[in-house]
Structures are given as structure tokens and as C-alpha cells.
Write a structure and sequence with these properties.
Strand content: 15-25%
Structural class: alpha/beta
Shape: globular
Radius of gyration: 19 Å
Number of domains: 2
Helix content: 40-55%
Order of helices and strands: HEHEHEEEEEHEHHHHHH
Length: 280
């Protein structure tokens, strides 16, 4: 989010934004998968410090053009955005206010039989999805997670349930989507997020590689892991910028390890990941 830095407080507001949007979406809350910054807290349970946080929500939609008549009807998106007070200048990035802070939703898809940079959401007049290469595998076998509906949300929506189930990308899907983002955007937050989850998931970088291999094998995507391999290779130089971004961000969020140790952890984690991926 342009106006706010990442923090745990911003993450809480982002989660509330997701819950609010899901309540407005109703039964259509299963029409997308959450692939963005809320995932590390769920996937990286072994991290020495909490994740830096996030300021936005990335929602991945399954879209295709082989059978247009069978395309989902996304007219519900317009109603949900209007009811939530969301506004946009480009149709895929939507902002609203929560007190003094801004909350953001981003609609994404992975469709390459369409010439434009954005893809229409069939039935929607106002919204489109931004086209990004790589995250489609995250749509396969998402994990259902139970989110608490905060007191603030329930105050605005008295009939809201105490919890709700939403679909999140699994470990392999998240890593593939995040590697695609890191490759295309080259933002520091993506470099940090990718290594954070690769290192600190329940079983470490080797399990991260196995999860990626399983995800690729189970989808229509090519089983060639060359794209994520090229991204992970960026961390192999412990003195390089990718390992440095990870180390600096970990220290900024409270890790007491030295920068040299964290740089080495990133390089060693990448090597373990790549070795396992080679043999998967």
C-alpha cells in the first residue's frame, strides 16, 4: 500500500479488509484464492520472529477463455466493492478507508491467451484482474483457513458470524506465486517473503522444494521448475542483494541474529531448496 509501511498493525487491518470483503461476497467468497501477504503467518510457523506484516490482499481468480459461455458470473464483485466503499483508478487495485488507514484489495489472474494487461471479470462492469505470469498453480488444492471476525467488523455487521472459512494458497502454490512476483516486480518485500516462507515453513527449505514439485506435477502448468529455480539462485551469494534484503528485514522485525548469519541462512536455505528440487 503506497501510503503505509508494512507492520503487524497493518496486517490486522488487511485481514479485517479480507473478512469484510468476504462477508460482502457471501457464497462467492469461494470464487478466489488468497495468495498474498497474509499467508506467511500460516505457512511459516517455525520463524524466529513474526512476519513483517502486509498492507494489501492479493486475490487470485480462475479465468479462461476456452469456454466463454461457462465463465463464472462476477457481477457480485461490483456489489461487494460498492457496499464496502472501495474505489479504484485502474479496475484491479481497490482502496477503502478503515479509520485513518487505507486498506487495499488487488485482483489478479494468470491468463496468457488475452492480449491486454488486464482481463475482464465476466459479468462485472467495474472490475478487472491484472495479468501476472506464474501464480496459476496456487489455485490448485487451496487450504481452507478459519479467520476470526473481529469485534470491529462485527460492530459494523451485527449478523456476521464469529469466524469464517476462506481459501488460501498452500505452501507450494504460495511459493510459486511469490517467486513469480519477485521475478516480475523485483520488490524488496517479495524477496523477503519468499525466503521467509521457504526457510521457516514446518519442515524447512527441502519440504518447500517438495511442495513446489508436488504443486507443479498436479497442475496443468509445466512440470519444469526452471522459473522458481532461477529466482532461488539469486540467494546463493550470501553477499548479494537478495540475501541482504532478507537479512536486513529480519533484523528490522526483531531477529537477534547477526546480518552475516542471516545472509548465510538465506544462501544455505536456497542451496538446500535447489538440491531437493533437482531430485524431486
Amino acid at each position: 500500500m503506497d501510503s503505509e509501511i508494512r507492520s503487524r498493525e497493518a496486517r490486522a487491518r488487511a485481514e479485517d479488509a479480507l473478512v469484510r470483503f468476504a462477508l460482502l461476497a457471501g457464497e462467492h467468497a469461494r470464487d478466489y484464492v488468497v495468495i498474498g501477504g497474509l499467508n506467511p503467518d500460516f505457512l511459516a510457523s517455525n520463524a524466529p520472529v513474526p512476519h513483517q506484516g502486509t498492507t494489501d490482499i492479493d486475490l487470485l481468480f480462475a479465468l479462461g477463455f476456452d469456454h466463454v459461455a461457462d465463465a463464472p458470473d462476477f457481477s457480485w464483485v461490483d456489489a461487494a466493492l460498492e457496499a464496502g466503499g472501495f474505489a479504484s483508478r485502474n479496475g484491479w487495485r481497490w482502496d477503502a478507508r478503515s479509520g485513518d488507514a487505507r486498506i487495499r484489495l488487488e485482483f489478479l489472474c494468470d491468463v496468457w491467451d488475452h492480449a491486454e494487461d488486464t482481463v475482464p471479470l465476466p459479468g462485472s462492469v467495474r472490475a478487472v484482474a491484472s495479468k501476472i505470469a506464474g501464480p496459476a498453480a496456487a489455485l490448485h488444492a487451496p487450504v481452507e483457513r478459519r479467520l476470526a471476525v473481529s469485534a470491529g467488523v462485527r460492530a459494523d455487521t451485527p449478523d456476521a458470524p464469529e469466524t469464517m472459512m476462506l481459501r488460501f494458497s498452500n505452501l507450494g502454490g504460495y511459493l510459486l506465486a511469490k517467486a513469480a512476483a519477485a521475478r516480475s516486480r523485483m520488490l524488496p518485500k517479495d524477496k523477503y517473503d519468499l525466503m521467509y516462507v521457504a526457510l521457516y515453513n514446518d519442515a524447512g527449505p527441502r519440504e518447500a522444494a517438495r511442495a513446489v514439485a508436488r504443486q507443479l506435477a498436479a497442475t496443468e502448468e509445466s512440470s519444469d521448475p526452471a522459473e522458481i529455480r532461477r529466482v532461488m539462485e539469486r540467494y546463493l551469494d550470501s553477499a548479494g542483494s537478495w540475501a541482504g534484503v532478507f537479512a536486513e528485514t529480519m533484523i528490522a522485525t526483531g531477529d537477534t541474529a547477526t546480518e552475516d548469519q542471516l545472509r548465510a541462512d538465506a544462501a544455505e536455505g536456497a542451496r538446500s531448496f535447489l538440491d531437493e528440487l533437482e531430485n524431486a
